[in-house]
Specification:
Length: 137
C-alpha cells in the first residue's frame, strides 16, 4: 500500500524528471551529462511511479517494453558507430550534419550514440526494477 504523499508527488515529478533527463541528454556533449545520466534519471522517474502505483501501471505509463528499448538503443549505438566504416573512415569517427537545428545545433553521430545509450540504460534499469518488483508480489 502506497501513501497519498508518494502517489501525489510521483504524479507531479514524473513529467519534470523526464524533462530533466532530456535536458541532460541534450547538453551531454559540452557539459556534464549525456545519455547515461539522462537514462538513469528517466529510469528513476519510472521506478518511483512503479513504487507508487504498481508495476503494471508503470508499464502502461512507459508504453514500450523495456526489452524493445534495449534493442532500439543497441541498434542506434552500433549503427552510429559503424556509419563511418561505411564511408571509409576509422571506426567511431564523428560525422556531423551541415545544417544547424534550433535546440540541437549540429546533429552528429555522437548524439545518435548518446540517444542509443540513453535508451539502453533506461531499458536495462527498468527491466531490472520491474522484474524485482514483480518478484516481490
Amino acid at each position: 500500500m502506497t501513501t497519498v504523499i508518494l502517489a501525489t508527488a510521483t504524479r507531479y515529478m514524473l513529467p519534470l524528471l523526464l524533462l530533466f533527463s532530456v535536458f541532460l541528454l541534450l547538453r551531454g556533449h559540452s557539459e556534464p551529462g549525456g545519455g547515461f545520466v539522462g537514462g538513469l534519471v528517466a529510469a528513476a522517474s519510472f521506478a518511483f511511479y512503479a513504487f507508487a502505483y504498481g508495476v503494471q501501471e508503470a508499464r502502461r505509463a512507459l508504453r514500450v517494453d523495456p526489452k524493445v528499448l534495449i534493442g532500439v538503443g543497441l541498434l542506434l549505438a552500433v549503427s552510429s558507430a559503424t556509419l563511418s566504416l561505411l564511408l571509409g573512415m576509422p571506426f567511431m569517427t564523428g560525422l556531423w550534419t551541415k545544417g544547424s537545428y534550433f535546440v540541437f545545433g549540429h546533429i552528429g553521430t555522437p548524439f545518435i550514440f548518446d540517444v542509443g545509450v540513453y535508451l539502453d540504460v533506461l531499458g536495462v534499469i527498468l527491466l531490472i526494477v520491474f522484474s524485482l518488483a514483480e518478484g516481490e508480489q
